[in-house]
Amino acid sequence: MIEFKLPDVGEGMHEGEIIQWLIKEGDAVKQDQPIVEVQTDKVNAELTAPITGVVKNILFSAGDTVEVGTTIFTIQEANEMSLTEAVSGESDNSPEQCGEEKRTDRLPSQWQFEAGRALATPFVRQMARELKVDIQLVKGTGPAGRIIESDLQQFVEADPVFREHLNQGGNETILREPEPKKKAEQPKVAGTEPEERILLKGIRKKIAEHMVKSVSAIPHVTHVEELEMDALKELKDQLKAYSEDKEIKLTFLPFFVKAIVIALKEFQTLNASIDEKTNEIILKHYYHIGIATNTNEGLIVPVIKHADQKTIFQLADEIRQLATEAREGKLRLEQITGSTFTISNVGPIGGMHATPIINYPEAAILALHKMEPRTVVRDMEGVIRLMMNMSLSFDHRLIDGVTAVQFTNRVKELLENPIRLVVEMR
């Protein structure tokens, strides 16, 4: 009997939430077959069977939060040859040799796998629902017969006439839209106002825990500065045709990343963290920039690794790709860890300024706000300029107010004079 303990599938995670069990007690499973889906720190992970055998005891239910190292199920190792023969029908008395049709209901009950449960990741299952494909009909080519993205695409492209027929309602049992979840009816209590209670769990719970840790451990101070964006907009517009030739959507964000990296190299404490166990300041000479991204599941921070070594167009393409994968739930663990400084671009939503919370254990975070024409004074005359505010929250244990202002002034200088930004890129 083997006890399967919840592993650390993140960087120092302490617990995980069980999202769903993909098997039940008594099921026969093959090695590497997905067993349970677990919510870790901002990503979902499917844990697989360590051996071929029978699941004996499931010790936790969906929705339970479990500490790393805790046994979550037990599995009894099976005789490998017996299982293989039972499943494949290749024993001496196999149905083929007897001239009979192979039937899974002839297998011993303990070796009958749950019918209709295809092996696939949560993202692939979501993709199947969006394509209106019954995933049970798709043949998997991945490890252990797992269905991968290309399998779905090939299934859909194999017979477009059949797919069109299904889309028009030809066979709703094979292809159909997922039914919308019905909102639970709230009990009405005399003398009280109507309210709804939602369990704090999953990504939202992780975000809450992370924010509490950040504000409790880091003394936050926020400095706000304004930028004149006309010159940068003119440069971006000049590069529009070139970016379109490369099929890259160019936004202002890559220019901010470059300006920030240049400033971080000059003001190193903003690219640092504190090791509270050893009481040391860690100055990081690599520049991994986190981009806060809003998704249906909550705030995710994908990371651009070694941003100082990438061009404006490389940054633009990677930002777009990471944002897409974040919204589709496709990000891997290494894509959301290791950031040294974070940017939160709330400008498209609106707002003049804010006090962003630092992405622990980083030392600072910069929020970008909406861009709009404003009346400003230049040479003692009122003129209209395209203006934007930025808010820098910083760890006052590491960074003094003077340093924070000098940092934002440097970013401002580079962005308001983009030719200087281009010259200083390296």
UniProtKB/TrEMBL annotation:
A GO MF term: lipoic acid binding
One Pfam family here: E3_binding
Source organism, top-level taxon: Bacteria
Keywords carried by this UniProt record: Acyltransferase, Lipoyl, Transferase
InterPro entries: 2-oxoA_DH_lipoyl-BS, 2-oxoacid_DH_actylTfrase, 2-oxoacid_DH_E2_comp, Biotin_lipoyl, CAT-like_dom_sf, E3-bd_dom_sf, PSBD, Single_hybrid_motif
Comp. bias (Basic and acidic residues): 174-186
EC numbers for this chain: 2.3.1.-
Cofactor(s), by name: (R)-lipoate
Annotated spans, Disordered: 84-108, 169-192
Domain Peripheral subunit-binding (PSBD): from-to ranges: 119-156
GO cellular component: cytoplasm
Domain spans labelled Lipoyl-binding: 1-76
Family: Belongs to the 2-oxoacid dehydrogenase family.
Protein name: Dihydrolipoamide acetyltransferase component of pyruvate dehydrogenase complex
Species the sequence originates in: Peribacillus muralis
